[in-house]
């Protein structure tokens, strides 16, 4: 991801927030047969306060990615959406795309069976928490044999990234009044590519920049 100082996101707390809110990531590896990408959910390591993440892949994706042996790129994609040049007023302009994203790179550590099971439990608990009647990993009709078989079919990993690139492109290079116009346009849901989360993220960023002046 090409970096621009105006849009750089370097605050660890902000990148942690991005991961927490957008756990469905893309994993990319340079495998023996060429580039390979997979999609999995990850969580922040609850024992750390840095950008270490934990997750799992289903077998044989561990072999396809060379998990634990090769560098892995994890792409975290936050809110994004199309920005029309019409929102800039009567000036020469072209369309753009606002977004928040982070790339975490490094060689992951393979988890033990016990650690992997703990991650699987956390993943299920995290995403079941919003259900009307949450069903944890160990809840019936799941039994120990079923859960054990499930764990054996996956490989858990922990990635403490050695390289991080975070980018928050939210029209920071535009005057406040233009940013407000873009927020209004996005909030109205104009266009096929509107993301309802994006205007809230832009407003949050604009408020923070104003407070820092």
From TrEMBL:
Protein name as it appears in the record: FMN-binding negative transcriptional regulator
Any Pfam family matching the protein: FMN_bind_2
Gene3D superfamilies: Electron Transport, Fmn-binding Protein, Chain A (2.30.110.10)
InterPro entries: Split_barrel_FMN-bd, TR_PAI2-type
């Amino acid at each position: 991801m090409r970096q621009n100082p105006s849009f750089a996101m370097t605050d660890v707390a902000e990148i942690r927030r991005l991961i927490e809110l957008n756990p469905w990531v893309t994993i990319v590896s340079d495998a023996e047969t060429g580039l390979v990408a997979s999609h999995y959910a990850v969580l922040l390591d609850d024992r750390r306060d840095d950008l270490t993440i934990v997750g799992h892949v289903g077998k044989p994706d561990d072999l396809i990615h060379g998990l634990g042996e090769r560098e892995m790129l994890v792409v975290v994609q936050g809110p994004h959406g199309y920005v029309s040049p019409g929102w800039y007023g009567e000036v020469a302009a072209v369309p753009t795309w606002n977004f928040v994203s982070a790339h975490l790179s490094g060689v992951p550590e393979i988890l033990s069976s016990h650690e992997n099971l703990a991650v699987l439990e956390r993943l299920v608990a995290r995403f079941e928490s919003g259900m009307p009647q949450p069903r944890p990993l160990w809840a019936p009709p799941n039994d120990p044999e079923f859960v054990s078989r499930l764990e054996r079919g996956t490989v858990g990993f922990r990635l403490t990234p050695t390289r991080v690139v975070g980018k928050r492109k939210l029209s920071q290079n535009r005057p406040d009044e233009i940013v407000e116009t873009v927020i209004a346009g996005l909030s109205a849901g104009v266009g096929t590519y509107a993301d309802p989360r994006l205007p809230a993220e832009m407003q949050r960023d604009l408020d923070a920049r104003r407070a820092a002046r």
